[in-house]
Amino acid sequence: MKKIVRIILIWSLISLLLQFGAYSLLNNQVQKVLAPPAPSGPITLQLKATIPGTDLTNIQISYAKDYLAYSENGTLKVFNLKKQTVVFEKEPPTPNDETLGVLTYQWLPDRNTLLYFYAKKNPNPVTYVTVYPPKSKSQASVQTPQPVEPKTEDPNQKTVKEVPKDVTKEVPVEPRIEKRYGNPQITELYSLDLPDSKEDVAPDNRFNRTIDQFPAGGEIEEWVDATTTNLMYLTIKNGSAEQLMEIDIMKDISTLSKARETIDNMAASDRYGTLYIDSKVGDSRQVVALNGTKRHVISSNGNDRILGIRDGKVYIGEVENDMLVKIKTTTDLSEVKSNPSLTTEWKGSIPFNKNLRTLIGAKGQMVVYDHQTAYIITAGQLKEVKLHGDENYVSVDGAELIQLTRNGTSTLAELQALEP
User: Fold this and answer.
1) Of 140, 272, 305, 321, whose CB count within 10 A is highest?
2) How large is the average pLDDT for residues 346-368?
């Protein structure tokens, strides 16, 4: 009897173990289907392509690393690197005015979409409007005769005498023509959606909106996107004036800059859309965070500069005599607080001036580079990479190196992973 009970218990235990194993396997398979895939690393490609022309400027590579946007003699062009062909061109409206045409462009960081601003002359900068005055606005008094029966000696004789009487009548007012002055320049925002580079499908070029507040002849110096909030931030210089403009793709346009403020650099939070700027008013320099119209001072150190924001960290660099000597970070919060604590991530000395480009890579690496050298700081360690080619560019995720070499009447583009 005891033996039978023991056998039953053993088989029951084996059955439970098998059921638990089967359940665990099934649960893991379901999780793989239902749960979103784990974020993969940035896309990198290794290829070579020959681009027609040698006077290429403002080189930018797409999110999937398969399209290259550049400007050639004032014309925006998009080049399919895999098929080695130009798939889109946008020429200026007139060849002699450099303030018109494509002002600037930028790839979205999470998809193969290129945004660009296009300016053209307003064909009707002056309009004439007929203005009608409100009704019964103008009145005048008019005397009209009224009959009066005077007294007479003979009661049988009646004499009618007219006496003037004031009667108010409306006098119509003629409408007037008013001259209205509009913006002499029309500035429009477009989005260019690119298909898979293997497909034979034309890009979808879509008009988004007109930026009525954009100053005629203005130059876009800085541009950052906050894709989570559909906000765009521009610094626009027009003569000696500079303004910070916030564009809500679906709603309003606002000016956020202060009087006599200049902005040297800016970055937008990839989580909350908060804008961080290097603000200079007079002799005072600060790193400031803008959340709507609210301002918070992040650092009052005149040597601190905003470097970028990535994955919950705000990167601030300390610069002395055109040398980056320290990298500090603070947490990217939804509710920004003034004067947060800063953690030092790196100390050293590398060149840092307007001729160098700066970005925070997808793996948190800091990349500072020009056309000859890339300085890469990862987890507090600095590595220096020598670059080849006439011009060199790094993708915004810090993963891809684009080397351009002029060859006769064309330019050889070579793509490879940027390895520190």
Assistant:
1) 305
2) 95
